[in-house]
Amino acid sequence: MAGEIIAEYGKNPINWGRLSHPDFSHREKNISCGEEITVDFSFDASGKIQKIAFEAEGRMVTIAAMSLLTEEIEEQPLSTIEKYSQEDILELLEVEKLSPRRLKSALLGLLTLKNAFRTREKKPLLDFGDILL
Fold first, then answer.
1. Could you tell me which residues are beta bridge partners of residue 30?
2. Distance between CA atoms of 70 and 99, rounded to whole angstroms?
3. C-alpha to C-alpha distance for 32 and 35, rounded to whole angstroms
4. Would you write out the chain's pLDDT as a tens digit for each of its 133 residues?
5. CA separation (Å) from 78 to 6, 8, 52?
6. Which residues are within 8 A (CB) of 114 and not within 5 positions of it... i.e. 6 or more apart?
7. Roughly how many angstroms between the first and final C-alpha of the chain, as a whole number?
8. Rounded Cα–Cα distance for residues 36 and 24 (Å)
9. Secondary structure of the chain in the HEC alphabet?
10. For residues 42 and 50, is the Cβ–Cβ distance under 8 A?
C-alpha cells in the first residue's frame, strides 16, 4: 500500500535526536510552511560520516524522507548527497508522486543535506527551485 514507508519512518525515524558533540551541524527551514530540520554530523579521520542525527518539525513525510536519507549516507562522505535527486527521494519513499506541498516537505531533508555539504565546502547554497523538477 502506498504510504507505508512514510508512515513507518515518519512515526519511527532512524537517527532521530541530536549528537552531544557534533563536528558540524546545519539547519534548513521551509519558510512557506514553517517546517525545519537540524542535522548533526560526526566524521571519522577519512571524512566519512561516522554518526548522523537529526530533529525536525514538520509533516510525517518530512521526517520519513530525512530518516531514509540519513540511513543512505551514513558511513559515506557527505559529498555523496550531491548525487541524490527528487526521483531518489520518491524511490526511497516508495511513491510515484506527491502533491506539490508534500513534495516540498519530502525534499526539505535533501535540501538540508545538500546545503550542509555546500556550507562545509564553502559553495553557493541551493534553494527548492534547484532541486524540484
1. 35
2. 23
3. 8
4. 457 999 999 999 999 999 999 999 999 999 888 899 999 999 999 999 999 999 999 999 999 999 999 999 999 999 999 999 999 999 999 999 999 999 999 999 999 999 999 999 999 999 999 998 7
5. 24, 25, 10
6. 81, 82, 84, 126, 131
7. 25
8. 17
9. CCCHHHHHHHHCCCCECCCCCCCEEEEEEECCCCEEEEEEEEECCCCEEEEEEEEEECCHHHHHHHHHHHHHHCCCEHHHHHHCCHHHHHHHHCCCCCCHHHHHHHHHHHHHHHHHHHHHCCCCCCCHHHHCC
10. yes
C-beta of residue 66 within 8 angstroms of C-beta of residue 35: no
